[in-house]
Write a structure and sequence with these properties.
about 80% helix; about 190 residues; mainly alpha; globular; single chain
Amino acid sequence: MLVLAQSGSRGLTHREVDRLAGLPLGSTSNYYRKRIDLLVAVGAQVMALDLADTRELKERLAADGPVTNGSVARHVRQMVQHWSSPSQRMRGLARVEILVEMIRSRELREAVSGLTAQAAESFSSIFSQLGSPHPFLSAELFLRLLTSIDLLILSDLHREGRDTMIASLVIDWIELALSAASLKDR
């Protein structure tokens, strides 16, 4: 993940991973034969961490009482604040690189589709509790909107008012995801 975050997707090579890990040249290629395999492995690592955050978010929501737009927004904001901490910066950079590569590479999209479906499924139960007529659709839209949060975090735009802006965006995105799902039936 570190190589991808520091060097971008084009810099993610077997040789660079071996060098950074202090391994003999060729070690990484024994496990990941092609570069796409390396990208898939890093993408899976980032998504596994994101899924763990989502599980934690759902546990906090369950302990918090009734699920409302406000409670979801509050807990998502806490998750985003965690993502914006200095210790998570590399993960955010890697996430953005993976997302850009997923746009370019059908092979990568297909390889991580199971993980993206797990994320949407996880959030669909939240949107079901919020009353969405199509919770999976709401979840997919919300997750697509949520991916843009990394660009706000990483660019340090409006640093002083960023938390307030993010809180407002999350509320708006929840409402948008709920509204968009109800339009499907029209």
